[in-house]
Amino acid sequence: MSQTPQSPPPEAGDPAPGNAQPLGALIIPLTLAAIGVYLVVGTLTMDEVGDDNGIFGPRMMPWLVAALALSVAITMTIDVLRSRRRSAAAQPAASGPAERSGEQTGEQAPNWRAVAIAVAGVVAFIVLLPFAGWLISATLLFVVIAMSLGNRNHATSLIAGLALASVIQIVFSGFLGLNLPAGFIGSL
After folding, report:
1. Rounded to an integer, what distance in angstroms lies between the CA atom of residue 131 and that of residue 49?
2. In 3D, which of 158, 120, 131 has the Cα closest to residue 142?
3. Is the dihedral of CA 31, 36, 37, 38 positive or negative?
4. What is the pTM of this model?
């Protein structure tokens, strides 16, 4: 009889063997659900301003965002729980040499450079918004986020960012009656 090496017992916080996503993947859906509930409570207790609110009143957008946040939270939760069940049923206990030795298979380290570029873009957006205005700041934010995600065609990102920022500007000013910061463009 030969003895096969046994894998050590799982630690308290370790996910069960074979599960694709740990329970930590539920952090984002739970955060979205909390935001959705907060928006529902805030919208229900909100005092409306005036009677003429245009196509969308002041309560319409919070309801849309709350519904979207809650829908995405529910969908993500179902996806995480299904993938845990599916992978647990599909993969038997650890049997390969890599799994027995405790090596991680299939996981990638976080791309900290991309995260740093995205965070720097958001900080730059916040700093530039009052001075440069919405159109320029949002366009640059789009370009920086696209760069952090690996896009190297900056001209296309610039055009797409400007188009998206312009559409958002039109929706906010035209449909909602809200003016986004104009920056130095507003003084021209």
Report:
1. 29
2. 158
3. positive
4. 0.52
